[in-house]
Design goal:
Layout lengths: L3 E14 L3 E8 L3 E7 L18 E8 L4 E10 L2 H4 L2 H17 L7 H16 L4 H15 L19 E3 L4 E3 L1 H6 L4 E2 L2 H12 L12 H18 L5 H9 L1
Parallel strand pairs: 3-5
Antiparallel strand pairs: 1-2, 1-4, 2-3, 4-5, 6-7, 6-8
Bound molecules: zinc ion.
């Protein structure tokens, strides 16, 4: 065992292992995604049980081992307690965490991604915006941070700036000329174009500050959904549960 480290981040998942322990996946600012074992965390009266729950944000104390860390404590700054009392909120939050667990890598910390998940869980908890809108904003922005930024500021084929459609084959928006020759182009509203651009260009603290009319939300939902499924080829368990709830 190496020396103790203090890492800042969020617990993405917590699963039971052996009789009394938990296996945690934590996304940390300093070291990216790490795996840690919290011994005895499932025992009655364990001081670890509350601090080793998913969504917990804070500073965690760990010993680095050969292939995993040993969790020895922490100070949680934000538990997202209201979110944890709401089944739909838990499902969406778990879905966001599953995406990060899938896309983030070990060793490389990204403060943008940590700030994004924090803001997204806060938005879910706040209940001011529709969860579907929060989900699509999160997916679009997360892919951009992960190096898959949708081409939304000029035509993805010719570079012109007047955009009228989305094409999944071209990974982005198209002008009127290029729309004619793209077999999968879907015409979209100007407001949808602007919404995509806004999400991609905004700072994280400005992301969850707007609502959309139903028809625009439907288009935004469709376009981001196609783009996300094209780039993230994975079935998420929490999404199956969410679909069964609706
Ligand atoms: Zn074009």
């Amino acid at each position: 065992m190496k020396e103790k480290v203090e890492l800042k981040g969020i617990i993405l998942s917590s699963s039971p292992v052996r009789d009394y322990d938990k296996r945690l996946v934590i996304l940390t600012k300093e070291r990216g995604k790490i795996t840690a074992f919290a011994n005895g965390a499932r025992k009655m009266n364990s001081s670890f049980s509350g601090i080793t729950e998913p969504f917990n944000f804070g500073t965690f104390s760990l010993y680095e081992g050969y292939d995993a860390y040993r969790f020895v404590g922490g100070e949680v700054k934000e538990y997202f307690r209201d979110l944890k009392n709401d089944i739909e909120g838990i499902c969406y939050g778990t879905y966001f965490c599953e995406i990060l667990e899938y896309l983030c890598v070990e060793g490389i910390g990204d403060v943008n991604v940590i700030n994004l998940i924090y803001a997204s869980l806060k938005a879910l908890e706040g209940k001011k915006l529709k969860p579907l809108l929060i989900r699509r904003i999160f997916e679009l922005k997360m892919l951009a941070f992960d190096g898959e930024m949708m081409s939304a500021f000029s035509c993805s084929k010719c570079g012109k700036e007047k955009l009228i459609s989305y094409s999944n084959n071209n990974d982005g928006l198209l002008c009127d000329e290029c729309t004619k020759s793209a077999s999968d182009a879907k015409l979209i509203n100007e407001t949808t174009v602007y919404t995509l651009q806004y999400v991609l260009s905004s700072a994280i603290n400005k992301l969850y500050t707007f609502e959309l009319a139903d028809d625009i939300l439907r288009e935004f939902d469709t376009v981001v959904g196609w783009y996300f499924e094209k780039h993230v080829d994975k079935k998420f368990k929490s999404l199956e549960i969410l679909n069964s709830l609706s």
